[in-house]
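ok so for the tutorial part 2 we go from a plain amino acid sequence to predicted C-alpha coordinates. step 1 is just haveing the sequence, like this:
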Amino acid sequence: MLLAFLSAAFAAVGALFLLSSEDNLIKWACFSVCIIFLALAIWLAFSSKKARDAEAEAVWFDSIDQIGVQSDEEKFNQMELMDDAQFVVYCASLYGHNGATVRQPTQFGGPDLIVTRDDETLAVFCKKSQKLISANVIAEVCSQNVVGAKSVVVSNGYFSEDARKLAKQSGVTLRDGADVVSGKL
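step 2 — the prediction. this is what the C-alpha coordinates look like for a chain of 185 residues:
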Protein backbone atom coordinates (compact mmCIF):
# COMPACT_ATOMS: atom_id res chain seq x y z
CA MET A 1 0.00 0.00 0.00
CA LEU A 2 2.93 2.31 0.73
CA LEU A 3 4.28 1.70 -2.79
CA ALA A 4 0.90 2.62 -4.25
CA PHE A 5 0.91 5.86 -2.25
CA LEU A 6 4.48 6.69 -3.33
CA SER A 7 3.63 5.98 -6.97
CA ALA A 8 0.64 8.32 -6.76
CA ALA A 9 2.87 10.97 -5.14
CA PHE A 10 5.43 10.68 -7.95
CA ALA A 11 2.61 11.03 -10.47
CA ALA A 12 1.48 14.22 -8.71
CA VAL A 13 5.02 15.63 -8.74
CA GLY A 14 5.26 14.80 -12.44
CA ALA A 15 1.99 16.63 -13.02
CA LEU A 16 3.40 19.73 -11.29
CA PHE A 17 6.46 19.67 -13.58
CA LEU A 18 4.12 19.18 -16.52
CA LEU A 19 2.18 22.32 -15.63
CA SER A 20 5.26 24.43 -14.86
CA SER A 21 7.39 23.57 -17.88
CA GLU A 22 7.31 25.53 -21.14
CA ASP A 23 9.34 23.02 -23.14
CA ASN A 24 7.08 20.59 -25.07
CA LEU A 25 9.56 17.72 -24.82
CA ILE A 26 9.68 18.05 -21.04
CA LYS A 27 5.87 18.25 -20.94
CA TRP A 28 5.52 15.00 -22.89
CA ALA A 29 8.13 13.29 -20.74
CA CYS A 30 6.38 14.44 -17.54
CA PHE A 31 3.03 13.38 -18.95
CA SER A 32 4.40 9.91 -19.75
CA VAL A 33 5.93 9.57 -16.29
CA CYS A 34 2.62 10.64 -14.69
CA ILE A 35 0.69 8.00 -16.64
CA ILE A 36 3.21 5.28 -15.78
CA PHE A 37 3.22 6.11 -12.06
CA LEU A 38 -0.60 6.37 -11.93
CA ALA A 39 -0.93 2.99 -13.63
CA LEU A 40 1.61 1.55 -11.18
CA ALA A 41 -0.27 3.04 -8.22
CA ILE A 42 -3.58 1.56 -9.38
CA TRP A 43 -2.02 -1.83 -10.05
CA LEU A 44 -0.26 -1.90 -6.67
CA ALA A 45 -3.40 -0.90 -4.78
CA PHE A 46 -5.48 -3.54 -6.57
CA SER A 47 -2.91 -6.33 -6.21
CA SER A 48 -2.34 -5.66 -2.50
CA LYS A 49 -6.11 -5.78 -1.82
CA LYS A 50 -6.34 -9.01 -3.81
CA ALA A 51 -3.44 -10.48 -1.79
CA ARG A 52 -5.04 -9.46 1.53
CA ASP A 53 -8.35 -11.02 0.47
CA ALA A 54 -6.62 -14.24 -0.60
CA GLU A 55 -4.70 -14.38 2.69
CA ALA A 56 -7.88 -13.88 4.73
CA GLU A 57 -9.65 -16.55 2.70
CA ALA A 58 -6.79 -19.01 3.21
CA VAL A 59 -6.80 -18.44 6.98
CA TRP A 60 -10.53 -19.02 7.31
CA PHE A 61 -10.66 -21.96 4.89
CA ASP A 62 -7.86 -23.59 6.91
CA SER A 63 -9.89 -23.04 10.08
CA ILE A 64 -12.65 -25.32 8.79
CA ASP A 65 -10.36 -28.27 9.55
CA GLN A 66 -10.57 -27.36 13.24
CA ILE A 67 -14.39 -27.31 13.40
CA GLY A 68 -14.64 -30.69 15.09
CA VAL A 69 -11.72 -29.99 17.42
CA GLN A 70 -12.71 -26.59 18.82
CA SER A 71 -15.15 -26.13 21.67
CA ASP A 72 -18.31 -24.11 21.05
CA GLU A 73 -16.83 -21.26 23.07
CA GLU A 74 -13.69 -21.25 20.91
CA LYS A 75 -15.82 -21.16 17.77
CA PHE A 76 -17.86 -18.20 19.09
CA ASN A 77 -14.62 -16.43 20.03
CA GLN A 78 -13.20 -17.08 16.58
CA MET A 79 -16.32 -15.60 14.96
CA GLU A 80 -16.02 -12.50 17.17
CA LEU A 81 -12.54 -11.84 15.75
CA MET A 82 -13.70 -12.07 12.14
CA ASP A 83 -14.59 -9.06 10.04
CA ASP A 84 -17.63 -9.20 7.75
CA ALA A 85 -15.69 -10.57 4.75
CA GLN A 86 -14.03 -13.28 6.84
CA PHE A 87 -17.43 -14.30 8.24
CA VAL A 88 -18.73 -14.74 4.68
CA VAL A 89 -15.72 -16.91 3.83
CA TYR A 90 -16.22 -18.89 7.04
CA CYS A 91 -19.88 -19.54 6.15
CA ALA A 92 -18.84 -20.56 2.63
CA SER A 93 -16.36 -22.98 4.22
CA LEU A 94 -19.08 -24.52 6.35
CA TYR A 95 -21.45 -24.96 3.39
CA GLY A 96 -18.63 -26.43 1.30
CA HIS A 97 -17.59 -28.72 4.15
CA ASN A 98 -21.16 -30.04 4.22
CA GLY A 99 -20.98 -30.98 0.53
CA ALA A 100 -22.64 -27.95 -1.08
CA THR A 101 -21.41 -26.05 -4.11
CA VAL A 102 -20.70 -22.45 -3.12
CA ARG A 103 -20.07 -19.40 -5.27
CA GLN A 104 -20.04 -15.67 -4.72
CA PRO A 105 -22.51 -13.68 -6.80
CA THR A 106 -21.12 -11.10 -9.18
CA GLN A 107 -23.64 -8.35 -8.46
CA PHE A 108 -23.21 -5.92 -5.59
CA GLY A 109 -25.94 -5.54 -2.97
CA GLY A 110 -27.49 -8.98 -3.15
CA PRO A 111 -26.74 -12.21 -1.33
CA ASP A 112 -23.22 -12.92 -0.12
CA LEU A 113 -23.24 -16.52 -1.33
CA ILE A 114 -25.17 -18.70 -3.76
CA VAL A 115 -25.24 -22.25 -2.40
CA THR A 116 -26.46 -25.30 -4.29
CA ARG A 117 -27.09 -28.60 -2.55
CA ASP A 118 -29.53 -31.45 -3.12
CA ASP A 119 -31.07 -29.70 -6.17
CA GLU A 120 -31.88 -26.66 -4.01
CA THR A 121 -30.43 -23.20 -4.54
CA LEU A 122 -29.97 -20.89 -1.55
CA ALA A 123 -29.32 -17.15 -1.59
CA VAL A 124 -27.30 -16.75 1.62
CA PHE A 125 -27.03 -13.39 3.36
CA CYS A 126 -24.28 -13.40 6.02
CA LYS A 127 -24.91 -10.87 8.81
CA LYS A 128 -22.21 -10.47 11.44
CA SER A 129 -23.49 -8.44 14.36
CA GLN A 130 -22.86 -7.79 18.04
CA LYS A 131 -26.60 -7.11 18.55
CA LEU A 132 -29.80 -8.99 17.84
CA ILE A 133 -30.59 -9.09 14.14
CA SER A 134 -33.71 -6.96 13.66
CA ALA A 135 -36.76 -7.32 11.44
CA ASN A 136 -35.32 -4.50 9.29
CA VAL A 137 -32.52 -6.81 8.17
CA ILE A 138 -35.05 -9.50 7.22
CA ALA A 139 -37.13 -6.92 5.32
CA GLU A 140 -33.99 -5.87 3.43
CA VAL A 141 -33.29 -9.50 2.54
CA CYS A 142 -36.87 -9.94 1.33
CA SER A 143 -36.48 -6.90 -0.94
CA GLN A 144 -33.44 -8.54 -2.58
CA ASN A 145 -35.24 -11.69 -3.67
CA VAL A 146 -33.19 -13.95 -5.96
CA VAL A 147 -35.35 -15.71 -8.54
CA GLY A 148 -35.23 -19.47 -8.14
CA ALA A 149 -33.43 -19.37 -4.79
CA LYS A 150 -34.57 -19.69 -1.21
CA SER A 151 -33.30 -16.87 1.03
CA VAL A 152 -31.25 -17.78 4.11
CA VAL A 153 -29.85 -15.34 6.68
CA VAL A 154 -26.82 -16.61 8.60
CA SER A 155 -25.62 -14.71 11.67
CA ASN A 156 -22.97 -15.13 14.32
CA GLY A 157 -25.55 -13.83 16.80
CA TYR A 158 -29.27 -14.20 17.27
CA PHE A 159 -32.51 -12.84 15.79
CA SER A 160 -35.12 -10.67 17.49
CA GLU A 161 -38.62 -12.04 17.93
CA ASP A 162 -39.92 -9.60 15.26
CA ALA A 163 -37.21 -10.80 12.87
CA ARG A 164 -38.23 -14.42 13.46
CA LYS A 165 -41.90 -13.61 12.81
CA LEU A 166 -41.16 -11.72 9.59
CA ALA A 167 -38.83 -14.46 8.38
CA LYS A 168 -41.49 -17.09 8.99
CA GLN A 169 -44.11 -15.04 7.13
CA SER A 170 -41.71 -14.39 4.25
CA GLY A 171 -40.29 -17.90 3.94
CA VAL A 172 -36.76 -16.81 4.89
CA THR A 173 -34.68 -19.40 6.74
CA LEU A 174 -32.70 -18.14 9.73
CA ARG A 175 -29.44 -19.65 10.95
CA ASP A 176 -28.09 -18.16 14.19
CA GLY A 177 -24.75 -18.41 15.97
CA ALA A 178 -25.60 -21.78 17.49
CA ASP A 179 -26.28 -23.19 14.00
CA VAL A 180 -23.00 -21.77 12.72
CA VAL A 181 -21.04 -23.19 15.68
CA SER A 182 -22.63 -26.62 15.20
CA GLY A 183 -21.84 -26.46 11.47
CA LYS A 184 -25.49 -27.11 10.64
CA LEU A 185 -26.04 -24.72 7.80
